[in-house]
Specification:
The chain is built from three helices and seven strands; from the N terminus they run αβββαβββαβ. The chain is α+β, with helices and mostly antiparallel strands. The chain has one domain. Strands 4-5-6 form a three-stranded antiparallel beta sheet, with no helix packed on it. A hairpin with a 2-residue loop joins strand 1 and strand 2.
């Protein structure tokens, strides 16, 4: 009988763990924070997210060295679009989060929450993402 209880408990724990992992994969990857210029989009760690003027709706143009300086906000396997949060397939085949169709990125020179050093970078083509 104790083996049945242990097996049932294990099965329940695995099911709950799988459900919470699935929810995490489907949840939007970011949130909204207040900054000097107002509300901005941030990733799960609170880092500022950016958009790139050279991107086309639903497509990322930031690849190779660009993606080293501006890491894309990569979506976990199983992630699903929800409301304004959409997914863009990168040239590598990986998925990247987008907001209202605009792919989202962090900036490698932002070191802590609230840093917005990428805003206006590279001739003004990078912008803090806003809700």
């Amino acid at each position: 009988m104790s083996r049945k209880i242990a097996a049932s408990t294990l099965a329940l724990a695995l099911a709950l763990g799988s459900a919470s992992m699935a929810q995490a994969a489907m949840a939007p990857p970011a949130g909204v924070a207040m900054d000097g210029p107002g509300k901005i989009l941030v990733d799960g760690a609170g880092r500022t997210l950016y958009t790139f003027d050279k991107d086309k709706p639903g497509a990322s143009e930031c690849t190779f060295l660009c993606a080293v300086a501006w890491p894309p906000l990569v979506a976990r396997a199983g992630a699903q679009a929800h409301g304004p949060w959409t997914l863009v397939r990168r040239s590598s085949g990986a998925f990247q989060w987008a907001h209202d169709g605009s792919p989202l990125y962090t900036y490698r020179l932002d070191f802590k929450r609230g840093d917005v050093s990428g805003n206006g970078a590279d001739g003004g083509v990078w912008h803090v993402a806003k809700p």
